[in-house]
Amino acid sequence: MGFFLETLFGGLMVGTLYALIAIGFVLIFKASGVFNFAQGAMVLFSALAMARFSEWIPQWLGTAPGFATTAMAMAVALLLMVGVAWLIERLALRHLVNQEPITLLMATLGIAYLLDGLGPLLFGSAVYSIDVGMPKDPLFILQNLFEGGVLLSQEDLYAACIAALLVAALSLFFQKTRTGRALRAVADDHQAAQSIGIPLSRIWVIVWSVAGAVALVVGIIWGSKLGVQFSLSLVALKALPVVILGGLTSLPGAIVGGLIIGVGEKLSEVYLGPLVGGGIEAWFAYALALCFLLARPQGLFGDKIIDRV
Known about the structure:
309 residues, two-stranded antiparallel ribbon
């Protein structure tokens, strides 16, 4: 039972990170009606910026690395992602208002390739590390219930808590603030939102900035765990089956979908992997997403498709 709980907790913690990446996809889709293929590139770009500014700022200030310089690096990286969001709206999205969704989709593909090339060009292509002070030592819990206790990773636990807090903050932002309500209005109908005075360009800058901030948090967490390298953009692809499972228009769906896939792939790898030679964790999420596409294309919490004749 203890081993099962270890696997379950590990899946839940990874699932919160998947959910956090998926929220970036959902934010862009709700505001523009297009699937943002640049989200993975944004994760890599923000992680590279954070890693390099963490090295450069102590050198510029002539001080030793510490909490203050790490916080400054995080703030500079966040400002950079807001600047990237402003440039995306100014140079690309502004000229594509009311265009076909496929046009916006191709624009996000172009942005993804641009960021994939621009990140290594500006910050280098080596494998970098990010240290934000999260403890990496293992933690044993429930020792009174199970022999040897249940082993947890403190880093994963901290990461899951950060992801959960950010998810809660975003949910409150969308539901309780005036800007959040404007974002939801734009998601429902661009032209109707413009007709009542909601500036579409400002909304797109805000939503891409929020998506950039989410990408920065994800990049820092995954960069701390795996190192900052090109594979981070591939990790973000796990959010694709998450949003298919939860629904492209639902923030709660992104959360639930991330947890289901995180737990499902861990349990299937541990208990079914030995029966089929392993490797289930690599494709489990995509197989589950394919099943949902066949049975319920809108996902668990997505808007129902209604055809009127």
